[in-house]
Amino acid sequence: MTTRSTAASGSQDSAAARLSANGIAVGYGVDTVIDGLDVAIPSGAVTTIIGPNGCGKSTLLRTLSRLLKPARGAVVLDGEDIAGLKTRDVAKKLGLLPQAPVAPEGLTVADLVARGRHPHQSWLRQWSSDDASVVGRALEMTGVADLADRPVDSLSGGQRQRVWISMTLAQGTDLLLLDEPTTYLDLAHAVDVLDLVDDLHEAGRTVVMVLHDLNLAVRYSDNLVVMRAGSILAQGHPRDVISAELLYEAFGLRAAVIEDPVGDRPLVVPIGRTHVRGSEDRHAPASSQARSSKVSLP
Fold this sequence. Notes:
The protein is of the alpha/beta class. About 30% of the residues lie in helices and about 25% in strands.
């Protein structure tokens, strides 16, 4: 499958990327999910991986974070094969928020966030005032300092996501990988969490995340990686990548792509069988529906 990309994204220049995957093949047991995939993550940008369920989004993110080992190929972090690095050294460079993390029962917010400092601890270097300062800043940055003494399991979904991101920040890395950080959140809380991600990016962090909501992915990303069946269909800035044709190819989704009324990005408007204007069009062939909605579809 041919990968489409844009020069504007700069994402294919692996020399400029701190994190890249070169010809990786990854699977579970005998099932191969990704085979021969190449991707370079542009530094200083928010990259979001999108695609239909089962296409390999989370598998790719888990492989980039070294949670999964590729059967072939390599993930390169700061010029080194990540498989050859010590776990502690990886944790000092790369912070990961896994999908649906669970804290031990009764653990307080402060204690959970403090666990982000574990990669910096050793029998020679114990907890210090510097660690306390880093944890305090992480709590402040994510707006959960007032929750420090609360048990994590007593918080709302949005609050918990902020706390987990706070723990990731406490690691002190400037490269963050977030696997579906808005899962189980209502739209208001999802926007709140992504506003936080945007703040972290503005503060100088490189972010890679997996999202399901197409419009949120478009609005909050500098670089999109569009996947289907373990391969990359397209990569680049949302303005250069998102089109009705691509959405149909990647998701089988019929949609209009219009200008976002509150931003400078495209807006995806899904088209269902009964959503075409005019009752006379509801039972028309798909090609007629597409024409009536001013969308050119395959």
